Amino acid sequence: MSHPAFPGAVSREDPELTDRQREVFVALVTLHGDSARPVGSESLAHRAGIPLSPASIRNALAELEGMGLLARTHASAGRVPSESGYDFLVRHLLTPASLPPELLTQVDETLRRSAHDVEHLLGEASRLLSELTHQLGLALTASLEHERLAKLELEPLDVRRVLMVLGLGGGAVRTLVLELDSPLERSELEEVASGLRERLLGRDRAEVRDRLAADPELVRRSAVRLVAHSAAARWAPMGPAARFSAGAGHIAEQPEFAGRPQLGPLLRVVENGPPLDRLMIEGIEGHPAVRVGLDEDVALSRCSLVSYPLPGELRGAVGVLGPLRMDYARVFSIVDAVGRRVAELL
């Protein structure tokens, strides 16, 4: 079973690298990340510019392989970082990337536009994570179906359209745009909102939806009935969890998955939820973590997950799923920035 890794979480059992071994290891990780191909001593000497003789580089590669940090794909091929190697990289050598101010502004402005609705916010977070990392962007929240209604407001959009704002006990907000069969004045809407609050506040979402559709107290007055029926028609029940993913095209372009049978099963696991739901939410709330080499499902093998469990009453998370060779320093910082902003806006 995979375990979360954090920068600086070193273990006494970890190997101690010499300066030469560290230099070769980091250079090989970088070259493999760029090409997705095994890396040999000649590439390290010429492309990475390591000031060591080919023999010294080969010795260092053999030593790193003996430590379990590198692996060979074929006997005659170069080497690639192993899962243990990437885990070591994250815990010992990862320095989260500094993100440019314009990217942080983009994160803030994009998410702020969706802050009125928790599902819109999480959907936009997954899209933004995918756009910024070129991997699969993920976001989820546990079901809101049993959250209790704490606030209800009605705001006119025009003569026949009304915005219903629903504040839930966990801090989430849902909005519904209602199409009315007949126009209502603002004063009528205020009276309707007062009547709805009297009957609905303190009820969970499922009961609110049922009462909007069938509560006899809500159909006696024509104005209340008009709004209640429109809201019931627009209010669909939620599943066991709200999941959002974006970037299937990005992951399909990765050499590890392009044109290979692994892509279909991977996307099905993402769509179905388990075990990613659990892996994303588990961890320290308000802190990003990396899971290198997901062994919970064969479709997730050779993948890593960077996730940010959201702090607060609303249980959820955002994250990025990608190949083992992803740019952990950049992805870690982007997931952290998006996760923090989402948490602030919830």
Q: Can you tell me the CATH topology of the largest domain?
A: Beta-Lactamase
What is the ordering of alpha helices and beta strands? EHHHEEHHHEEEEHHHEHHHEEEH
- Tell me the strand percentage band: 15-25%
CATH class of the largest domain: Alpha Beta
Secondary-structure content class: alpha+beta
Number of strands: 11
Number of helices: 13
Instruction: Based on the coordinates given, report the CATH architecture of the largest domain.
Output: 2-Layer Sandwich
Return the average pLDDT rounded to an integer.
86
Helix content: 40-55%
Give the N-terminus to C-terminus distance in angstroms.
31 Å
The CATH fourth-level homologous superfamily of the largest domain = GAF domain
Characterize the overall form.
elongated
Largest sheet: 6 strands, antiparallel
Count of domains: 3
Which regions have little confidence, pLDDT < 50, spanning 5+ residues? none
* Strands ordered across the widest β-sheet: 1-9-10-11-4-8
Summarize the SSE layout with pairings:
Layout: E1 4-5, H1 19-35, H2 41-46, H3 54-66, E2 70-72, E3 79-81, H4 83-93, H5 101-112, H6 118-133, E4 136-142, E5 149-158, E6 161-168, E7 173-179, H7 186-200, H8 205-214, H9 222-234, E8 241-246, H10 248-252, H11 263-272, H12 276-281, E9 289-292, E10 303-309, E11 316-323, H13 328-345
Antiparallel strand pairs: 1-9, 2-3, 4-8, 4-11, 5-6, 6-7, 9-10, 10-11
Helix pairs in contact: 1-3, 5-6, 5-13, 6-13, 7-9, 8-9
